[in-house]
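This is your field. Pick holes in the following sequence-structure pair:
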Amino acid sequence: MLAVCSPPLQAQGLTAEFFGGTAWSLPTILRIEQPGEEAIRFRARYRTRPWHGSPYYAYRLGYRQWSAELVHHKVYLQNPPPEIEHFEVSHGYNMVIVSRTMPLLEQSSVFRIGVGMVIGHPEGRVRGKSINPVRSLLGGGYHIAGVGLQAAAGPPMRVADHWFFRPEAKLTAAWARMPLADGGTATVPNVALHLLVGFGYRSKH
């Protein structure tokens, strides 16, 4: 039988969690700049496609009130103008976030807020030219591209002595600027609501 974890257990030991889920992105202004061309700027709409190609996922490592996580968020442009054949950040609009839980009544592991960086991997074709790959410090076309914030809520629900299940909702807001293969840039802000389901392990010490 599932039970919300008690406060003493929440405050102890290391935790490791893995999540699947999906996200819904709000329309935001996408700006693409290329040398010698007029900038493309419009209100972009995106889909997540959580099971297409590289899947949507997240994982988290925590100790007491602190945690570090990676959210493998994805965005696929749905309303490209004529200059853009396709555009996506699907190998991820990755957010690496350090968070702290915020107590609410007797539950200390339900709410968390965090800040971190965006690591982006853009793909697509603009004006007939591929925008990737671009050499990067991280390799593989991944770029340290910007900053992100999150607010998340989800109660841990005990399923065994060390194991728990966690449904979670989170709101993220991020800004990222990614280099393109022709020397241009894509500025890709994102605000999204995420719904996740995770399974975790907690040590007692």
About this structure: The two ends are 24 Å apart (CA to CA). The longest strand covers residues 84-104.
